Amino acid sequence: MLSTEKIIDAMSEQGLRITDQRKTLAKLFGEHSGYLSAKDVYEFMGKKYSGLSFDTVYRNLRVMQELGVLEQIVFEDGVKFKASCSEDHHHHHMICLQCEKTYPISFCPVSMADTPDEFQVVKHKFEVFGYCKDCRQPADAGLSVNPLSGHTGEH
Ligand SMILES: [Zn+2]
Ligand SMILES: [Zn+2]
Ligand SMILES: [Zn+2]
């Protein structure tokens, strides 16, 4: 994961003005290993900058994602952001639905896709969701500890 300094460096190298707010965002993501929704970020930023609008926060997240310092993942409860990985080779992620720990996987499904000749691929996404060894439900556990139980009835 990119450190606060790496995030700031990457933003300034690509010509983004490093405002105090962007520095705070870089620090927030540089020190947080999990995923944050735009609302989480807005609530955090709102405590430090009074009168800050959700739009401003969201626009900054968007810019940071476009610059590649943040990764955006679509969870069932919405889009969340995390500092990009520091590994520079192409890879994908396995993400724990419980603790949101992220594991790199080198398998890339694109080479196996039957892409039509006339279709030009510019980007792709591939994420695998599940439970890590710490969050996995033991085979003999009762329903009371089923991590999915909290989600039933919502869909
Ligand atoms: Zn990664
Ligand atoms: Zn986990
Ligand atoms: Zn790939």
Automatic annotation (TrEMBL):
* Keyword Chloroplast on entry: no
A single BP term in Gene Ontology: regulation of secondary metabolite biosynthetic process
Among its keywords, does the record have Iron-sulfur? no
Q: Which CDD domains match?
A: Fur_like
Residue positions binding Fe cation: 90, 124
Q: What top-level branch of life does the organism fall under?
A: Bacteria
Q: Which GO terms describe its molecular function?
A: DNA-binding transcription factor activity; transcription cis-regulatory region binding; zinc ion binding
What the entry lists under InterPro entries is as follows:
FUR, Fur_C, WH-like_DNA-bd_sf, WH_DNA-bd_sf
What are the names of the required cofactors? Answer: Zn(2+); Mn(2+); Fe(2+)
Which keywords annotate this record?
Cytoplasm, DNA-binding, Iron, Metal-binding, Repressor, Transcription, Transcription regulation, Zinc
Q: PANTHER family of this UniProt entry?
A: FERRIC UPTAKE REGULATION PROTEIN, ZINC UPTAKE REGULATION PROTEIN
By sequence similarity, the record places it as follows:
Belongs to the Fur family.
Its protein name is Transcriptional repressor
